[in-house]
Amino acid sequence: MNTILVILLVVAMIFVVISLVRGVVAFLQSYRAEIDGEAGAQHQKEMQLKQNRMMMNRIKFQALAIVIVAIILMLNH
Q: Shortest CA distance to 5 belongs to which of 62, 65, 61, 59?
């Protein structure tokens, strides 16, 4: 059981990193477009929505990882 939980924990941690990187990349792209004066308001809004979506995903995956750690600790205690 511990092995499965550890594997799930590692997967959740990988998803945290992926969603963090995707959110930061979306932020940098929107910031770069704003500096260059490119893209209209619609594109900026889409990029902001993507940033928000990625950061919410990161929070969800972090919460999942915390729950998995709590379960592992409860099972091993």
A: 65
